[in-house]
Request: fold
Amino acid sequence: MQKFDLSIVSCEIGSVLIFTKNGICEKIELSNDFYAPSGENIFTAQISEYLSGKRRELDFPVRYSSGPVFEKIWESLKENVPYGKIITYGELAKICNVNPRVVGYAMAMNRLPLYIPCHRVVGKNSLGGFNGKNGLKWKEYLLRLEGSI
Reply:
């Protein structure tokens, strides 16, 4: 069983839980619960700056592994869709030369929301899905924060 260090950043709609190991972020969870902030480190500093509108990109060390197709999709998202912009599942699929459903699966498997900004991927006629139960609340919050909607 892996043991992670947990840091927490709070905001107006809940808490961002940051799981790190040996100074590398391996997982971020967006919670609707309000937890006391904890941990003063590069992860909490950058996420706090992002949530306050002072930072547009997170660049702390991360580790993720989900295979070459998902990693290609995530990297394409980071490279092609900057802060304040959105893209549809179909548009990102076209860039990556994959089916839009594969893009949806890649977004659903993203263990590093905010760092890999899956909230910027929307449906053709709706916001699409996001981060499980009550995730649309977070997606809408993040897109409003960035001025996308």
Notes: The longest strand covers residues 14-21. Residues 43 and 60 are 7 Å apart (CA to CA).
